[in-house]
Amino acid sequence: MGAPRKLVLGAFLQTPSQHTAGWRHPRADAEASLDIDAQIAFARTAERGLFHAIFIADTLPFPMVLDPEVLSFSSRVVDFEPMTLLSALSVATKHIGLVATLSTTYFEPYAVARQFASLDHLSKGRAGWNVVTSSNGAEALNHSRDRHPEHSRRYEQAIEFVDIVKGLWDSWDDDAFVFDKASGRFFLPAHLNVLNHVSERYRVRGPLPVARPPQGYPVIVQAGSSDAGRAAAAGFADVVFTAQSDLAGAVDFYTDMKSRAAAVGRNPDHLLILPGVTPVVAPTRAEAEKKYRELQELIHPVAGMAMLSAAAGTDLSGFSPEDRLPPLPETNGDKTRQALLVEHAQKTGKSIRELYRWLASGYNTVVGTPADIADQFEEWLDSRAADGFNVRFSSLPNDLDDFVELVIPELQRRGLFHRAYEGTTLRESLGLPRPQSRYES
Amino acid sequence: MGAPRKLVLGAFLQTPSQHTAGWRHPRADAEASLDIDAQIAFARTAERGLFHAIFIADTLPFPMVLDPEVLSFSSRVVDFEPMTLLSALSVATKHIGLVATLSTTYFEPYAVARQFASLDHLSKGRAGWNVVTSSNGAEALNHSRDRHPEHSRRYEQAIEFVDIVKGLWDSWDDDAFVFDKASGRFFLPAHLNVLNHVSERYRVRGPLPVARPPQGYPVIVQAGSSDAGRAAAAGFADVVFTAQSDLAGAVDFYTDMKSRAAAVGRNPDHLLILPGVTPVVAPTRAEAEKKYRELQELIHPVAGMAMLSAAAGTDLSGFSPEDRLPPLPETNGDKTRQALLVEHAQKTGKSIRELYRWLASGYNTVVGTPADIADQFEEWLDSRAADGFNVRFSSLPNDLDDFVELVIPELQRRGLFHRAYEGTTLRESLGLPRPQSRYES
């Protein structure tokens, strides 16, 4: 056997805070969402901590029925648009990967291919695309559509969409451009490839007006955990995010995804599985538990109830925080999230207040010392439940700062985490091969 | 009367070169198009020269019928996507405006509003949007459409589109966000505005997940010079780009646009008219003329013919460089460009080679000393033919460097150009008021 496996860590940066009350913490920067100086500071801290990548979720916070009074207790209502933010961060960082979420349901493949290819060139090979199919029906209301497409159709569309985008990224061979001042020849004509994609859904000719990305293709990330989501990820993803609340479930998911990858002829090592985790860390357990308790008590009941309603896919504001969760109607939104909620409520018998506090904390919160956090990471890595984690921070910058100061050194001491970035691109840092062009023989 | 009027100057940065052969110049950086370090250097030179803004055209270089052999002599085939590039430049510059071109024909108003609002926050108030309706039918082929929309319908759509975008920018009042940690209130509910736009063409609910832009609205630029384009610009634009080849025509255009603005109830001083100009400058006239001649001789006949075909809206490759321009079929593309070409050909009797050399040089090339360039700028400003210029550079970085070294000091010496940026936003630098929200009483 060679060296022990090392963890891949992503920093999931949601501003002003992942936890609904995180922005109210005394050390939190409540105004960070549209402050580029704050965002640059977060990204540089994550880079100092050698996180492989920053992940930016897409803010789609607005429920189908808007109630401004309820919404006004939510901090996740405005932020930078992901592609513009990561482009700005690309020149303020040097090594860290930059992963943005973009929906295949409401954009055109040509536009998506072009912006990600551009970001990959801007960052010299550090771009990643988190492919989502949009679980939020409210998006349809902003895109001149009457209805959100049905769940399984969205995945069919996503698979075709990613295939078109990859085809467009191959528009120019890696060695197409010669810039020959003497002859006047800018590129070699035989190295231009025209996609000519035609289907019922899409007609995209190409070529893309961007050279092949430095990584060949930016890293593809996928987070759906339904059967359709898993099948899609096994086919096209390099990295899978997943919400797992316990080790046994995480092992099942990991095993399933690796075997799905093998079944479609891929090397399972080239599909990285990163469960989400929310560490609440302090030098002692007592301090960590106090920190967690204080955070949970900061949740405003109106915000808590709104969050629970969103996860449930139905309005629960008529219930009291002391009530139990009622039976829920079937959702056309995020089925995985609803199922996780129902399962947890049944298993624990929690009240609505306890449920929104559980939701607010994230599905896999680890409260403890740096050694406690490292113990769980090590256990999941050794149990083949994870190749690493997508780390979420209750509050920014404080929880990110604490993680980099306290947990990263402990992981490095145990030989579980790198001490420098490997290579120059995100693919190299993740140990993933550079994909060949479909036109290469 | 107060101080003399001062010029507004935009730096129109097309990489690797505005002139089709510019990249072949010995001092040119032929590889700049996808090199962020080169782009940052250009932007910083423009900022050192106190240009009010950088303008980025959208690369839509691919003709309806692709001939890779012909295309391979063209340098304008790949570059950064404009929104991602300007986002990157926003953190590498401090004062200069950042104007990107985006089409109202192939994007959704919600996505456009969101990215420009984000860029305005990233740049702390320096974003501008050059609204185009897309003259290139080849775009339809990449967006699952069979046909490019007809010319006048595109402008109707653009007017509605801009109105929706402005409505989305007003989603949050300027003082909406209170970030109140004590009460848990993030924003004031009465200061959220939901657009609810419904028409045959668009249904957009809002709100935008971005706070109101620092400038209220990013600066709106328009460049169409047809009657429909002028009417649209008089209604919604802050800045108009225009292709004018002589003083008399420029005065007519300027007068027409200012009176159109007044006719719709606007202050004509708040609609800035910037004709394009391509200076070829050197310390002496003989040097400048030599520089120009050498550049024109670098045009490869295949590239020249392709450029002329694009402007003509029809394939001219069957003709010889010695031939005269044949009668042209009506175009559904850029009518203004075709009409300018036909008028110039008729007036001058030029051969096809002379015509593509004329096209390559830009419609308003001024060859001479710094004093010659300043003379023309001063004459156009004093004659009310221009409020300033959109300056094009045959070759980068050399022509930008020469302009900043030689022409800017001459303009400043004459009191025609500022010696420092006024204010902090692009609107302040241009002397334009900050627009009120439509919801403000």
Automatic annotation (TrEMBL), chains A, B:
InterPro entries: Diverse_substr_monoxygenases (IPR051260), Luciferase-like_dom (IPR011251), Luciferase-like_sf (IPR036661), NTA_MOA (IPR016215). Signal peptide: none annotated. FMN binds at D58, T101, H151, Y155, S225, S226. Pfam families: Bac_luciferase. Its EC number is 1.14.-.-. One of its GO terms (molecular function) is oxidoreductase activity, acting on paired donors, with incorporation or reduction of molecular oxygen. Keywords: Flavoprotein, FMN, Monooxygenase, Oxidoreductase. It comes from the Bacteria. This is NtaA/DmoA family FMN-dependent monooxygenase. The lineage of its organism: Bacteria, Pseudomonadati, Pseudomonadota, Alphaproteobacteria, Hyphomicrobiales.
